[in-house]
Amino acid sequence: MSLLPYPTLFLLLGIAIPFCVGWKIASILLAPYLTALRDLPGPPSSSWLYGSMKEMKHADFAAIHEDWVAKYGKTFKYKEWMNFDRLYTIDTRALGHILSHSNDFPKQAVGLFFLSQVVGSGLLIVGGEQHRRQRRVLNPAFGPAQIRELTSIFVEKAHQLRDVWNADINGDGEPHRVEVLSGLSKMTLDVIGLAGFNYHFDALNPHGQKNELNEAFTVMFRTLSGFNLGLLRILKGYFPLLRLIPDKYTRRIDAAQSVMRRIGMELITEKKAELAKAAETGVKGEHLKSRDLLTLLLKANMSEDVPLNQRLSDDEVLAQVPTFLVAGHETTSNATAWCLFALAHSPEVQQRLREELFSLLSENPSMDELNELPYLDAVIRETMRVHAPVPSTSRIAAQDDVIPLETPVVDVNGQVHNTLKVSKGNIIQIPILVLNRSKELWGEDAHEFKPERWITGIPDSAKHIPGVWGHMLSFLGGPRACIGYRFSLIEMKALIFSLIRAFEFQPAVPYEAITRKLAIVQRPYVRGEMEKGSQLPLLIRRYQRT
Ligand code: HEM
Ligand SMILES: *[C@@H]1O[C@H](CO)[C@@H](O)[C@H](O)[C@H]1NC(C)=O
Ligand SMILES: *[C@@H]1O[C@H](CO)[C@@H](O)[C@H](O)[C@H]1NC(C)=O
Ligand SMILES: CC(=O)N[C@H]1CO[C@H](CO)[C@@H](O)[C@@H]1O
Prior knowledge:
alpha+beta; binds 2-acetamido-2-deoxy-beta-D-glucopyranose; binds protoporphyrin IX containing FE; CATH 1.10.630.10
């Protein structure tokens, strides 16, 4: 090995290391002048270190984005840490290209590191071939026929929440101030437990026992979320070597992770045994007792349609447990909370909706019955548009590429471009919420909560939005669109069905008092009560049908 004498070796290393470090630094410093984005217009950077990130953290981030769109057009760039360019576009054609070419525009590794500590290599994290393989086995579990089977769980849990609130009214009279967030969050946790893995969180039960899996998950989620990540944690996102240094977060997450693994493995073993028994006794899949997602997944993995080399390992299946929890719990509850908020502030919409809901005679509607209520559908669509729970996401260009554009861009030199060049490593912001509410796409009343627009017909411009559902990006689009959108839509419909029939909702604090903060999902806060954490108080009264 050691052909070189030591002094020479040291000398070479002495040159090579500074050279490499210098090269790296130079390429970081020069990147903004070299990438394909350099001539795009955009807001000037206010700081070398933070770019425009500080303004974005302080101002209502969506409002600042809208200002930029007004000033610089549909496609521009802004500066982030160390003046790196970030491409921003609400051009529907460009977004369609980016979302449909999910291998050329994968998720960013930095963000994935934090998330992967919680969800392992589940569907949210993995990319490329592994993603395609997982998605193939998972897709059938989220199809309409499977969601139809789960509807009774949604309805039953919605009624349980209604009964909890009814009991509160019995306790302290009307109107009762209810913190809708916490109730909804318990409901969606119970639902994802039962519908996901036939696991009883029992969160809605006021006398329920403390739950091990719930606690493990809470620890992980708390550790994961929030901006107070600490410098070391942030640096770990960028420099994988640093991840070898233990910190208190890593230790806490590891402990919680092992609880989750143990319980997850127990669930998997149980379900495999049930499937094996069913196979022995000749019970066909559709007559199986368990209809939860995990069982369906294990079954799909055994299906002859899936070649052996395409199947999932135990670890991959296990990783879907925290994945469903992270992806399916807070998103749905926060969306429903915003829906109730919007309804509390639009009494006529609320009443019109209630009348439609009472047109169903059954207390326990099926999926098809829920889907046949046009105004309920319009209200849910409008909630997802105006209050998209996941307000934005991002992608990175895996190589140099040319992106088609609907609207040409004019660069800083006044040149018009009909397509957009990006360089490998450029980061692209996908502004879900801003796009959902763009006046250019939705018309002048874009900011208003108006379910009627879905009945009278939305503008053609909005029809070009490349989303998987409802001409919106609320569930994104392309091969990496939300796999659980049908699940959450029916869950939300069941909740609204049960709650709006039982109660009248009114604001508990003025409209302006509710503000929102961005973590992984948009969460409501009450101004002046930020220390109480995320909350959304509303007043409820029992609805008396005359
Ligand atoms: C209102 C509720 C929901 C909203 C707004 C929502 C939104 C989204 C969005 C925007 C993405 C794409 C994220 C990105 O690529 O950056 C996504 C992905 C995903 N969602 Fe949902 N989601 C919801 C409910 C659910 C539910 C109930 C489940 C599962 C039970 C779920 C499972 C997933 C999974 C597994 C992915 C990753 C898909 C992939 O990368 O292939 N989501 N969701
Ligand atoms: C929305 O997110 C917040 C923050 O984690 C969470 O506490 C809350 O429960 C979520 N909303 C609902 C309705 O569950
Ligand atoms: C999926 O199927 C493969 C091949 O039959 C098997 O090795 C693997 O253990 C299965 N995965 C699970 C989680 O059951
Ligand atoms: C996209 C976004 O948040 N912008 C606007 C949304 O609507 C509210 C009022 O309806 C405005 O205050 C925001 O600026």
